[in-house]
């Protein structure tokens, strides 16, 4: 699989269980078995401690020496951790001092040309729910390459991958993203030996219209919407040689529909698109992808539209 030849794995300094790194090793090994080019992995750790920055009684050289000491210590820990894993693939270790981890990650992606970022998620022990950090959201919105958020779900052979598409839209951006998502699902499914399912949600009858216009036929409207989306889905599935049995068109919000289908199929991965909205519009509107990711109990691969430029790019 030529798409992912250079993978950046975000190391979590708060835990010894580096599930993102293990997922990357597994994925890279399968890619290498299926292709001619060898996938490379970089284990990347961004660290920062305000206490070192507040030691004003020390000289600049002394503070630099302290930072380098901490960096060396983390490099030693990370290299030993990788040795214990004994991977069948070479892994480069990089530890940097940065007070904003997401910026360090995205800057590295832009400068080094990584084509996949893999990061683990945190789980609340008592609530058994996934907690997303600000770093997670910043990476999802601003990273120019695909981002995979890893949860606890295993990747069994002959499992299921869900491609979340929006086939009912006539917008060019949605169409190109549908193609990108589906192609990604097909390629990954071939690598990890999985089945591809297509999922599309559509909105029900707007309540305000039904109330304000008594003669509005809600049943006919819903039937028309269902038919439109089902026909569009079949056309899209046929284009990519995906069995119609593996297509799912349901009424409801994307976060509800995708989670329901993923749970029913016990999917190991959901692939979706994110438009990378930032600023005030992100705060007020939010990204559909983020609402979906919150609900899922499996890994997520988020893709950007073609031509997306990160706000951190020079």
Low-confidence stretches: 280-286
Q: Which sequence of strands runs across the widest sheet?
A: 3-2-1-4-7-12-11-8-9-10
Radius of gyration: 22 Å
**In the CATH scheme, what's the topology name of the largest domain?**
Rossmann fold
State mean pLDDT (0 to 100 scale): 85
Name the helix and strand elements from N-terminus to C-terminus, one letter apiece: EHEHHEHEEEHEEHEHHEHEHHE
Question: What is the total number of structural domains?
Answer: 2
What's the main sheet like?
10 strands, mixed
Main structural class: alpha/beta
Number of strands: 12
Give the name of the CATH architecture of the largest domain: 3-Layer(aba) Sandwich
State the helicity in percent bands. 40-55%
Beta content: 15-25%
Count, helices: 11
Structure explained in plain terms:
This protein is an alpha/beta fold. The chain has two domains: 1-152, Rossmann fold, CATH 3.40.50.12370; 153-314, Rossmann fold (3-Layer(aba) Sandwich), CATH 3.40.50.12370. The protein has eleven helices and twelve strands. It has a ten-stranded mixed β-sheet with strand order 3-2-1-4-7-12-11-8-9-10, sandwiched between helices. Strand 8, helix 6 (172-192) and strand 9 form a beta-alpha-beta unit. The longest helix has 26 residues, at 60-85. The two termini are 30 Å apart. Residues 280-286 have low confidence and may be disordered.
